[in-house]
Amino acid sequence: MGSEVGADLLVVELFAFLHDSQRINENEDRMHGDRAAEYAESLNHRYFDLPDSGLDKLVHSIRFHSYGKIHQCPTIQTCWDADRLDLGRVGIKPSAKYLSPFGAKHIDAAYECSKLKRIND
Fold it and tell me: Tens of pLDDT along the chain (121 residues)?
């Protein structure tokens, strides 16, 4: 997805690993994005090397990924689309109003894949 919209793929990959890494409770943990954003900042220049602009995008995408917003930056929006397209893992079908137009095209396929992942667990 990210390569088709010109996203920074390293930021998207790091987001995938880190955005829920500090979640304490699957259902009620509103602050996990803030904790994960701080954690990501602490890892830069130790485990990966993002320039300031990349780190800013990573931290922003992690901190606000649960807020249901849309962003004009292709990198940040790709992170959020990827996370939202995986909502089937908790039984929720993603809504197009919380996705970019590109991400919205993939709702049905992503939902089916997420449901399969949940069934196989």
Answer: 888 899 999 999 999 999 999 999 877 888 999 999 999 999 999 999 999 999 999 999 999 999 989 999 999 999 999 999 888 888 888 889 999 998 999 888 888 887 775 555 5
Burial label for 56, CB within 10 Å (0-12, 13-18, 19+), is middle
Show me where the domains of the chain are located.
2-120
Q: The tokens of 28 are what?
A: 């009620």
Cα dihedral 30, 32, 37, 42 in deg (nearest 10): 150
CB 94 within 8 A of CB 107: yes
**Rounded Cα gap, residues 91 and 35, in angstroms:** 25
